[in-house]
Structure formats: C-alpha cells, structure tokens
Design goal:
The complex is a heterodimer of chains A (about 600) and B (about 190).
Chain A (H helix, E strand, L loop, with lengths): L2 H11 L4 H22 L7 H7 L4 H9 L3 H13 L8 E3 L9 E3 L7 H12 L14 E2 L10 H15 L8 H12 L4 H11 L9 H20 L5 H20 L18 E2 L16 H5 L11 H12 L20 H4 L4 H11 L18 E2 L5 E2 L1 H8 L6 E2 L10 E2 L3 H10 L1 H16 L7 H13 L3 H13 L2 H4 L25 H7 L20 E5 L5 E4 L12 H12 L16 H17 L4
Antiparallel strand pairs in A: 1-2, 3-4, 5-6, 7-8, 9-10
Helix pairs in contact in A: 2-4, 5-6, 6-20, 7-8, 7-9, 7-11, 8-10, 9-10, 10-11, 13-15, 18-19, 18-20, 19-20, 23-24
Chain B lengths: L1 H13 L1 H8 L11 H12 L26 E3 L2 E3 L5 H24 L14 H11 L5 H15 L6 H11 L4 H9 L2 H4 L3
Antiparallel strand pairs in B: 1-2
Classes of the chains: A mainly alpha (about 600), B mainly alpha (about 190).
Chain lengths: ~600, ~190
C-alpha cells in the first residue's frame, strides 16, 4: 500500500458512522492545519485554504505547501534551529509601516548566512548542505539614504588625518606607532567620531542594517585596535587596514542605488540579496563564523581557551551534548594539553573537546586571526606573549574530530577552520544529527524517536546526490509519519519504526543503540556474557510492593534472575569505566552520542528499578 | 491576585482544558509552543494589522517582555521555560482571560470589532463568529454552528474534535469571555503537538 493510501485509510476508511466520518474529516483538516503551520514557519493556514487543501491527497497537500513562499521561511527557521541560532521571532513588523502588516526578517537572520544560503538553495534546487559551509557572500538588508551631512566626506577627512599621524613617509619608530594609534584609538578621536557618525547616519539605517555596519564600520576599527594593541604588528599593517577601510566604505556607497529601498525590497526569502563583489573584500566578505552570530556568542578565555567554541560545534553539528562518560585511555599521549584535561576523570569530555578546540587555537578575541603574530589576545582581554604564548600554542598536540581514543584511524584530523568544515561536510554523524534535529523541529523537541527510523531517514542525505531533494524527502516522510498524524502523541513512546511495521521489543528510546552495539554478544543468558540478554525486554518479577517490573533477562551463576535495579547499575558501571577489561562494548568504541543516550536511559531505569 | 483563582479554576474545570490535562495525568506531555508562536496564531486568526502590532503580553501588563519570557520561547538558540508549571499556567490564564474579557466587552457590549481598551481590531470573520456567540440561539443546530464558528476562529483544527465537544459541553452556556478563555487555554492550542 502506498504511503498516500495508508494515510487516507487512517483518515477516512475506518469511518463507519456519521460521527466517525465527521471525526475523520476533522482529523484530516487537523493534519493539514498542523502541516500548514509547520511548512509556513509557524504562520497558521487561513480557514479557506484548509478547506481547499482538504480536497487534495496528503502528498498533494505537502506538494502545495512546499511550493508556497512560506516554505522557504520554514527551511530558514529550521536551519537556524539546527545551528543553535533560532531567534525568538523570525520576523518583526516593518518598523517603517507597521499598519501595513508587512514584516521584516529579524536582524539575527543576517548573522547566519549559511542558514539563508541553504534555505534559498532548497527553493531554487541548489545545495542544501551549504548550511554546513562557510559562506563568503554577505546577505544584506536594503541600504538607507546617504544624504545626511556628508558623513562620507567627513570620514575621508578623518582617515587622512589618522594616516598622517603615523608619519608613514619617514622610518618607522615605536613612537610613530604610538602617536598614530592615539589618533586612531583615542576616545572621541576624529576618526572614531567620524566612523560613529557614519554608523548612525541614515545610510546604515541608524543601526538597522546591523551586519553591514558591523562589517564596514566596527570591524576595521577593531582591526586597527588589535594592530595598535600588539607591539609586534608593524605600522604598515595598521595603514593597510586604514586603506582597506576607505575602500570598503567607498565600495558600499558606490552601490547605494542598487541596494536602496527603491530598488531592493525583501518580500520573501528568495528576495534577499548578497552584496556584490564582497567575497574578496577583507571587511565585507561574509562568513558563517559571524562576529555577532558566532564569535561574540562563543567567546574564548585565557583559562578555558577555545573549549566553549568546541562544545558548541560538537553539540550543534554532532548532537553531542558532552555527557561526561569515562573512556578507555589511548596508548599514546592524551588529546589534551593541560593538567586538568589530562586527569583521567576529566578525559571523559576532554578527549574530544580539546582536539575540537584546536581548530580555533589561532582565533582570539572576537575571532581575530592571530596566526603568525607574536601575541594572542583572548576575549577576556588577557594577552599571551613569549613563553606563555609558546605554551598555549603547544597545548594542542592533536586537532580533529575524535571518535576513538584507541584507534586513530577512526578519527578525522585537521588544522584549520576550513578543515573542520570539510570534516562536518563528510561526517555521517552530522547527517544523523541533521535528521534528528529535523525530527525535533517537526515532531516535537521532547518526542522520543526510534533511532533506526532516524538512521533510515538520514540515509537519504547520503544516497541522494540532490541534497535539497533529500531535505524535502526527509521532511515529507516526517509530515506523513504516524507521529505527526497522532494528535496526542506521548513523548516517551515511538510511533514510527524501521523497518516499517516492526515494533521493537526493547524500549524504543534505546533499541537501536542496543542492537548496534550490544546485542551481537548479549543475545542470550549465556554466562560467558554475564548471563545478560539484551535482546529481550520482559516481566522480571515484582518489587517489594508487588508492582510488576520489566527488565532484561539476566541470570546469575545459579540461574536466578538478577533484580533489574542491579542489572541497570551494572550496565551503568560498564558504560562509565575507563578500565579496558570492564568497559563495554568490549574492546570496541561506541559512538559518543549513542553511548550517552543509552547511559541516560539506564540511569533513569536505575532510578525506577525497572518499574514501568 | 486571589480573586482570579476562582474563575480560573471554574474555567479550567468547565472547559476542555482540565479534561485534556487529566488525559495526560502521569503521562509524558509536550512543552509550550511558546509565547511568540501563540501570539502569532491569535494575531493571525483574530486581528487586523495595526500600527501597534498585537501583543498578548499587554494583558499581563507586561511592557518589557519580562513576564512573557516565562511562557516559553527561544533565547540564545535554545527553547527555555517550556515546561508547564503553576506559575506559567497562571500567567497564561491571566493573559488569555484578559484578552477574552476585552474581546467580549468590545464585541458584545460595545458592538464594535475593536478589542476593548486597545487599538486592535478583529478581522471580519473573527468578529462575525464571536458576535454570533453574544446571544446564542435556542435552536440546537444553530447554537452548535455558532459555537463551532467561535472554536474554528480561535483554535481552528489545532485540537481534535473531542476537545471542541468537551468545550461546548462545559462552557456552551457560559459567557463569551469564558468560552474564549477555555478555547485559548486548550492544551492542544498552547502545548506542542
């Protein structure tokens, strides 16, 4: 039976009475309303459109909704959710004319260019996996008018003054640099006043065009600040920065007409344009590691280094929430660089956290690239130079995505942020994470989902070379799933399984994990495997109050059932030991996210002792 | 605030809210859909665009979004305050009850589509549906139609038919404000699916 027929059967064919028919008519409209809300980024479907769509089959409903302009907003909204950047609201009322009902995309959206690029790609048949990339284009809102008080001319004059203050014609001396920097950095210096006035001018919409202002006004200022702040940076680099600043601002003003509100209106997502010729501009090029979107949110420090950034990457792209579970240490040196991180109990997180943090080792305050410089400034404004700097740079013996502490061949190593993004692009864990996040977004953040079903759906991202088609295909499967159709799904139950129609005997939250990692050995109560059978979940007696208990068959040496609370405690211990003789799965590595999921579930069972 | 508790309990008990809440007693339930999602749904179904965009939080006396942030929403990329508890349910009740009372006064007393005490105007379909409930007809079929109109204008198909039936049975003879409050507080409307 096709999926459409199955759904129609669920909605209609079971109706036997007038009331039941009415209920099923309602149920179908409820599904349409729910699908409509999801595929229109939260915007409810008008009543008339629900009635219109009710005449179509479920697949046609999905087709229609995916072809509507609101679908691109859904993809954008999901991308932001996946990237951990979903704002409170995707839209704000148009501040220029709120009574019109027009909306503007929230400014936070423009800080996540990969989310926009991937959403536009899904609509235009491009590459959805741009959501995983570094995007060099800069998406912009319309520019304001550049007519107020010749701010550009005043800015040029202030720049000339600043350049002159460095005495660039003569031999460079520290005093020259200090004098010049005082002009560049001083409070209410002509340059800082002129750049601030420029930022507040109508051209930048008084700060409404936030990303652009930051790129063109704030970034060069920060660049000059760092160059002045670090003694070893020569005056020439400060002057290069000032010259680039002038080029950038001039380039923006030259495009004023092309991006004015008269010639550039954003009515839908695909209307959002990138800034022309920005990819090669030092300040205007876009990046997925946006100053406010990424670097400001995930700051580093002189004590924690870049681990906050690393934790974000692991959580966002790999769905790894760093549940602290002990790992069997490797034969070689630990993947860490300081005493705390080398402690065995701390290794539970640091074995993967520190190699991931290594990708960010050259990036200091607000993500500034300090590679090749004799100083490193952190977001907490601490400065490392000399021996301290050397020690810091040696603190990253390994940089990469670590899956195994024992078998380096399973790991993906690299050095730079482009290497990290390449790893993210090819890692199967990322495709699975993407699918899991899409399930959360579509079916509910707290809904339990069968791991086998997620794994099956995520295969579409691997086998389908059309990534946008794959995205739509996976989303369609979810919209037509039993979980989505169910009006009052219980969050601790699974409604969709793979293969379809099979109902795993084990609790669905962990059945896939156990099947993949444990069941090849623990498939009977043979004492060679501790008498523990992890392929069955059945009544195993009662507790002291007579409440029936469920658990795994687990026999002791005399053939008596081990109390389930003890079984769970033993499993917990075996999952959380660094002893290679005791650690399970024996002599094998288990994916970190699956191990964490199983551990958390076992932990819950330990608390309830097997009580249903 | 004590004076609000009695009508709240009455409203919850009489509406499908308590019925559906008891359905999930002891079972796993979802989180709130969040303030912004609910605000957007009410705004889209009930109100016309306005120079001052519709904000449900105004019925909390909340001008700085402080209280509305307790009703669930995304912040720093994560959904926060989504778990229902006594405090946020009270806040939901105050907000929805305040809105419902203002709508009832506007529609049934002032005979105006303007939500009483605000600058927001009901859409024509919402005004027509709610007006019809100001004086419910005696004829059973017509009465059913009028109540269905109010329900669909408010909750649409976000909740199963059984919720409409429970709401109609519990509040069908009550005030318009109670009808609207009950519908707006239906768990299928304010909770994640």
């Amino acid at each position: 039976m096709t999926r459409t027929l199955r759904l129609l059967a669920a909605f209609c064919l079971t109706a036997t009475s007038v009331q039941a028919r009415a209920d099923d008519t309602w149920t179908y409209r409820a599904w349409i309303a729910k699908a409509g809300r999801l595929l229109r980024a939260g915007e409810p479907l008008p009543a008339a459109q629900i009635e219109e769509l009710a005449q179509k089959s479920p697949d046609e409903v999905v087709d229609t909704l995916m072809a509507s302009p609101g679908f691109a907003d859904t993809v954008l909204d999901f991308n932001l959710y996946f990237l951990g950047a979903k704002p409170a609201k995707l839209f704000t009322p148009d501040y220029r004319d709120p009574a019109s009902g027009k909306r503007l995309y929230a400014m936070e959206v423009f800080e996540v260019p990969q989310a926009i690029a991937a959403a536009q790609a899904v609509v235009n048949g491009g590459d959805f996996f741009q959501v995983l990339d570094d995007i060099p284009q800069r998406y912009v809102t319309p520019f304001g008018k550049a007519e107020d008080g010749d701010q550009l001319g005043k800015f040029h004059a202030a720049l000339d003054l600043a350049v002159a203050a460095f005495h660039p014609a003569g031999p460079e001396t520290p005093a020259d640099k200090a004098a010049g920097c005082a002009v560049v950095l001083g409070d209410h210096s002509p340059l800082s006043d002129a750049s601030e006035a420029l930022f507040k001018s109508g051209f930048f919409e008084g700060g409404q065009n936030f990303g652009l202002d930051l790129a063109a006004v704030s970034m060069p200022s920060i660049d000059a600040s760092v160059a002045c702040f670090v003694p070893d940076i020569p005056v020439a680099r400060v002057l290069d920065g000032l010259a680039a600043w002038r080029v950038t601002i001039d380039k923006l003003y030259a495009q004023a007409a092309d991006y004015s509100a008269d010639s550039y209106a954003i009515r839908k997502l695909t209307d959002i344009r990138t800034l022309a010729n920005a990819e090669t501009d030092r300040y205007l090029r876009g990046t997925s590691f946006d100053l406010f979107g990424f670097w400001n949110t995930y700051q580093n420090s002189s004590t924690n280094y870049n681990r906050k950034r690393a934790a974000h990457i692991l959580r966002t792209y790999f769905c790894d929430d760093l549940t602290p579970l002990n790992v069997v240490p490797g034969d070689t040196s630990p993947h860490t660089g300081d005493a705390h991180a080398s402690d065995p109990s701390c290794q539970s997180c640091h074995y993967k956290l520190d190699p991931m943090a290594g990708f960010f080792k050259e990036r200091g305050i607000i993500g500034y690239d300090f590679s090749g410089l004799d100083a490193h400034v952190f977001d907490d404004q601490a400065i490392f130079t000399g021996e301290k700097l050397a020690a810091y740079r040696e603190a990253w013996p390994v940089t990469g995505y670590v899956r195994s502490t024992r078998d380096p061949a399973q790991n993906d190593y690299g050095r730079s942020l482009p290497d990290l993004l390449a790893i993210i692009r090819r890692a199967p864990e990322v495709k699975q994470c993407l699918t899991r996040r899409l399930a959360e977004y579509t079916l509910g953040r707290t809904q339990t989902i069968d791991g086998a079903w997620i794994d099956h759906l995520s295969q579409q991202f691997t086998v389908n070379h059309d990534s946008s088609g794959a995205f739509k295909g996976v989303l369609r499967e979810m919209l037509l799933s039993k979980t989505f159709v169910k009006a009052d799904a219980q969050t601790d139950q699974c409604y969709d399984n793979y293969p379809e129609g099979t109902v795993p005997e084990l609790p669905c939250a962990v059945s896939f994990v156990i099947r993949n990692n444990c069941a090849s050995c623990h498939r009977g109560t043979d004492q060679r495997h501790g008498g523990l059978d992890l392929t069955h979940w059945q009544p195993v007696g009662t507790d002291a109050d007579g409440t029936p208990l469920k658990g795994f068959p687990h026999l002791d040496a005399r053939g008596a059932q081990v109390p389930p609370a003890e079984t769970f405690t033993r499993i917990q211990t075996r999952l959380n030991t660094a002893d290679p003789v005791l650690a399970m799965p024996l002599m094998r590595d288990m994916p970190a996210t699956e191990k964490a999921r199983l551990f958390r579930w076992v932990n819950e069972q330990t608390t309830t002792g097997g009580a249903p | 605030m004590r004076f609000l508790l009695a009508p709240m309990i009455l409203a919850l008990a009489a509406s499908g809210t308590l019925d559906a809440a008891s359905r999930s007693n002891g079972d796993a339930t979802g989180e709130f859909r969040g303030y912004e999602a609910i605000n957007a749904a009410i705004s889209a179904r009930w109100t016309l665009p306005s120079a001052t965009p519709f904000r449900l939080s105004s019925f909390l006396g909340d001008t700085s979004n402080g209280l509305s942030s307790l009703l669930g929403g995304f912040s720093s990329g994560e959904f926060r305050n989504g778990e229902p508890n006594a405090l946020n349910m009270l806040l939901w009740y105050i907000a929805m009850g305040g809105l419902a009372a203002a709508v009832e006064t506007g529609v049934c007393t002032d005979h105006s589509p303007t939500i009483h005490g605000t600058s927001w105007t009901l859409t024509a379909p919402a005004y027509a549906a709610i007006s019809a409930a100001c004086q419910l007809p005696d004829d059973a079929a017509a009465r059913e139609n009028a109540l269905l109109g109010v329900w669909l204008a408010t909750v649409s198909y976000d909740a199963p038919r059984a919720e409409f039936d429970a709401w109609r049975a519990g509040l069908g003879s009550g005030t318009v404000a109670a009808l609207l409050t009950g519908a707006l507080l239906d768990p299928y409307f304010i909770l994640e699916p």
